[in-house]
Write a structure and sequence with these properties.
mainly alpha; 0% strand; single chain; 30 helices
Length: 552
């Protein structure tokens, strides 16, 4: 066997084994692309796209397309043209993408039939202009064609997009049924790796962002994670698999693996911004910003949000929640208010409303918060998913607390706690526990408040949620010890942080106060405890059980 033949055999075997780096090297070792059969060119293109070799993929697909047209195999030529169109689309090279869409139309005209991949590509334009009925009309024959020709990729792609069209139009149940149907082919291993990667990401995005069905999205995220675990680590690059990294990271973050999620997102952002996935990079940057915000790494989070914005992605509600955590309530309120005012689709407004309620309450805008809760309730009725119901009852509890109706807040917050546990969302459950503790304390149940706060601090500590941990620890100081020395609740919170070695600036950030207010509290504490320094205050507090020792 010649060297070229040996390299070719090895490349084909590597392709079958999903070792795309090795496959690319083998195919490219053949003296020239002209020496590859059309099937080998198509395998090279797929491996190149899945391993981040954009130029090699485009070159191989271009050559394969020409050969397929010359052979008169217009169905196969249309498939090559579709993947070329999508490669340029993902890279944001719209002129090239439009050129290949025109080539697709030429092939369809020459064949005298409506080629399925042309129908799929054309449907994308319908989504961009909100013509969801037109999209379904195009996709139905594409799906039928895929089934008739046993083309699992075309069938699954068209079925998924029909589901998306139903979801975009507000028909949640019909949309989810199509999503599930498409994913059966994907999880059964019937689709090619490119299609598998694309549809995993699409199914998760549609389930969570359009249907607000977190449980379903998590199910597909777990399936995605299982599929990715079968792939050699060096191959996880290029726009298709880098986007998969983003969704795997979101799953990691939800279940509490924040450091792993940050690492995964940094890699994905580097791949997408430095490679050929410009249209996907904004979402990756936003999710990185969210992870950094939760970890309390605000400077890095702001940089990620800025990159997301520059790439065309929305930055709310994450940016608003970060400003709130930094104590800049006015900026937080202005940002999330602007975002909600320019958002029309119920699916998108539903994503903003929970944070909007929290921020408006912090800004003292109770009427605006009440209006938002009412709208969130209508969303809960429309979507009928656990996530939206839980977000709604938590918001009801938040508003009741802010309105001085602590007793009325208890039942909805308790229902929210059950919902977050059902959704396996430890961070959200801990945030809810702090709200419950506040309600318990307000009705005189100090022991219940302590239990909730201890559970919350344990979770925040495990997650690495530094800002939330500091606030929860400050709340752990009970009223009996406070009253014995004339401390207000806020002074006790400040004293807790002083005892932990926090500066005034750090305390201001953690409690969302101005430094001037913190200094006033510190002065009052010194006077009430008859001490003259922060060290004396901390020592006195520890000796008299005014603070809890750090459990880091």
């Amino acid at each position: 066997m010649s060297d070229a033949a040996s390299a070719l055999a090895g490349a084909r075997a590597a392709h079958r084994g999903l070792r795309w780096d090795d496959a690319c090297a083998g195919f490219l070792a053949v003296t020239a692309p002209e020496g590859l059969a059309v099937e080998d060119l198509e395998m090279l293109a797929e491996c190149a796209q899945l391993s981040g070799r954009h130029e090699a993929a485009v070159s191989a697909l271009d050559r394969a397309f020409a050969l397929r047209v010359r052979e008169g195999d217009l169905d196969a030529a249309s498939t090559d043209a579709f993947w070329l169109w999508q490669a340029f689309l993902l890279d944001g090279e719209m002129a090239h993408a439009n050129g290949w869409l025109a080539r697709l139309r030429e092939v369809a005209g020459a064949s005298g039939t409506e080629l399925g991949w042309l129908l799929v590509a054309t449907a994308y334009g319908c989504f961009a202009t909100g013509r969801y009925d037109d999209a379904r009309a195009l996709l139905a024959p594409a799906m039928a064609q895929g089934r008739e020709r046993a083309d699992a990729d075309l069938d699954a792609f068209a079925t998924m997009l029909i589901g998306r069209a139903w979801l975009n139009a507000g028909a949640t149940q019909a949309g989810l049924e199509r999503l599930d149907e498409a994913m059966l082919r994907v999880t059964a291993g019937e689709t090619s790796p490119r299609t598998t990667a694309s549809l995993f990401c699409a199914s998760i995005s549609n389930a969570e962002m359009e249907a607000h069905d977190l449980a379903r999205g998590q199910e597909w995220e777990r399936a995605l994670e299982a599929w990715m675990s079968t792939l050699p680590v060096p191959t996880l690059s290029g726009p298709f698999l880098a986007n998969c990294r983003v969704y795997r990271a979101v799953l990691q973050r939800r279940r509490g693996e924040w450091i792993a999620a940050r690492r995964e997102l940094v890699t994905a952002v580097d791949e997408l911004t430095g490679g050929h996935g410009a249209r996907l990079a904004g979402h990756a940057c936003y999710e990185l910003g969210e992870t950094l915000r939760l970890l309390g790494e605000h400077a890095e989070a702001e940089f990620a949000y800025r990159r997301a914005s520059s790439l065309g992605a929305a930055t709310q509600p994450g940016l608003g929640l970060m400003r709130l955590a930094q104590g800049d309530v006015a900026t937080a309120a202005a940002g999330v208010r602007r975002a909600l005012s320019e958002t029309e689709r119920p699916q998108d407004r539903c994503s903003l409303l929970p944070a909007y309620v929290t921020i408006m309450l912090a800004a003292g805008e109770l009427p605006e918060a009440v209006t938002a809760v009412d709208e969130l309730g209508r969303c809960a009725d429309a979507f009928e998913t656990t996530l939206v119901r839980v977000e709604y009852v938590r918001a009801v509890g938040e508003v009741a607390l802010a309105d001085g109706r602590a007793t009325a807040a208890l039942a909805p917050l308790r229902r929210a706690a059950e919902g977050w546990r059902e959704l396996a969302a430890p961070y959200e459950a801990a945030v809810n526990a702090v709200l419950l503790a506040t309600a318990c304390r307000a009705v005189g149940d100090e022991e219940g408040a302590q239990f909730e706060l201890e559970a919350a601090t344990a979770t925040f500590s495990q997650l690495g949620a530094a800002p939330d941990l500091a606030r929860a620890r400050a709340l752990l100081v009970g009223p009996a010890a406070r009253s014995a020395h004339g401390l207000t609740r806020r002074e006790a919170q400040v004293l807790q942080l002083v005892a932990e070695g926090r500066t005034n600036h750090m305390i201001a950030t953690e409690l969302i106060l101005s430094e001037r207010t913190v200094q006033r509290h510190v002065s009052n504490i010194f006077a009430k405890l008859a001490v003259h320094s922060r060290t004396q205050a901390a020592t006195f507090a520890l000796e008299h059980d005014l603070v809890r020792r750090s459990r880091g």
